[in-house]
Amino acid sequence: MSWTKIQVRGQPIPRVPARNHRMINSFVCGVSIKSHHRVSNVLRTNGSSLGSVPIRTTESQFLRGDGNGRFGRFGGKFVPETLMSPLKDLEDEFNFVLGDHEFQEELTTALRDYAGRETPLYFAGRLTEHYKSISRTTGDGPEIYLKREDLSHCGSHKINNALAQAMIARRLGCSRVVAATGAGQHGVATAAACAKFSLECTVFMGTADKEKQFSNVLSMKMLGAQVKSVEGTFKDASSEAIRNWVGNLKTTYYLSGTVVGPHPSPLMVREFQSVIGKETRRQANQLWVGKPDVLVACVGSGSNALGLFHEFVGDEDVRLVGVEAAGFGLDSGKHSATLAVGDVGVYHGSMSYLLQDDEGQILKPHSVGVGLEYPGVGPEISFLKEAGRAEFYTATDQEAIQACRLLSRLEGIIPALEPSHALAFLDKLVPTLRDGAKVVVNCSGRGDKDLDTLIQRGLPSSLC
């Protein structure tokens, strides 16, 4: 049975049986796990800024999953026998560094001094006034804030996770990192992290994506990465990167940038991106002595959305709103709206919602925001939908482009086309909110990479 894709049509897939053959002293990337681990003091340092390591809060089972990478029926490890041991070793290492003060101190320093955290929670005054002026109400309307992940080093939220996982790769003795990228933002972040930590880097990228995001291809090469073309898009590049990793387990680390894949990958990416929500909570309390009322993020596979949402999942008075890519429209067949029209299945090693046809074959996704072109979402995002904790909507290509242009002209900020989908949904969301409601939109990346696409789609007449 292939581990890449398993169809589910109303029947549960049995849990992959436990493996008991694993050696006591197993190896990942040539390092003895048994000898590698050392006793670590549990992290308990508290602090109000990134100058000190924040305390880890206790999480309920609802927030954390069942400990085996499952959120309800979603998640798991649907992989070949040969990967069970490496994934278990990776999970052990991940759990270890979560409580290792030395690792957390180094990561906090890197996020602050290298990545540029914390990123601002910016009050978008003119955008707020815009929606107030077009609203039918006479009140003050809601206030719109942007979490400025576009100001992070390399231009997106991807650097948060790339730094942390590159550190894990180095601890495991890996000399080489492989990754897959769509829009190129994860590729650039991975290439930068590998350069910083002296790791060889190979990034797989779909041929169509390389043409659209050529500036990011140049950046990856400038940072020392080898960029390999794969016929197709991000899903195809992901498959090829995984194959490469499987063939080189002794030397190579697969650095996932999305909250998909077999456990522990989704949990790791979510954990390392959760700094976004933790900062947002602290900044909101400083700005208005409270919490946001609504959090809004685009959803491709879900890394930036979970990065913002996770801190607030237990706050039932905070709405979590995800916005998928409707492309040319849900009826066109050219979209990436997995949660809107998808079914449950297994792809790339875990169970989640997928875009698939009646025969269970994966459909080709589409979005003007290349980073949203993935035919599935992460297991935790799938669970948030099924549990009713998060709301999910869609925005078309044209709506995202219009939102990108609007923010550019009103605030002097050019967002990437991916978060522009979240911004586009404000047109429908804002009129439904009370006066004074605090809305935080995750501006997860900057739009330099999308300028060619925007020009091809036609600049507004006022810019010509």
Key words describing this protein structure:
single chain, 464 residues, alpha/beta, six-stranded mixed β-sheet, four-stranded parallel β-sheet, 19 helices, 17 strands, disordered N terminus, aromatic amino acid biosynthesis, amino-acid biosynthesis, Trp_synth_beta/beta-like
Summarize the structure.
α4 (101-114) crosses α6 and α11 (265-273) crosses α13 (303-309). Helix content is 39%, strand content 17%. The chain contains 19 helices and 17 strands.
Tell me about this structure:
The chain is an alpha/beta fold and 464 residues long. The chain contains 19 helices and 17 strands. The chain has helices at 33-36, 61-64, 81-98, 101-114, 125-134, 158-171, 185-196, 207-212, 214-222, 234-246, 265-273, 275-288, 303-309, 338-341, 379-387, 397-411, 417-424, 426-429, 451-456, and strands spanning 5-7, 27-28, 31-32, 70-71, 74-75, 121-123, 143-148, 176-181, 200-206, 226-230, 252-254, 294-298, 319-327, 343-347, 350-354, 390-396, 438-443. Strands 6-7-17-12-13-16 form a 6-stranded mixed sheet, sandwiched between helices. α6 packs across α7 (185-196), α7 (185-196) packs parallel to α9 and α12 crosses α13 (303-309). It starts with a strand and ends in an 8-residue tail after the last helix. It catalyses: (1S,2R)-1-C-(indol-3-yl)glycerol 3-phosphate + L-serine = D-glyceraldehyde 3-phosphate + L-tryptophan + H2O. This is Tryptophan synthase. Residues 117-445 form the Tryptophan synthase beta chain-like PALP domain. Keywords: Amino-acid biosynthesis, Aromatic amino acid biosynthesis, Lyase, Pyridoxal phosphate, Tryptophan biosynthesis.
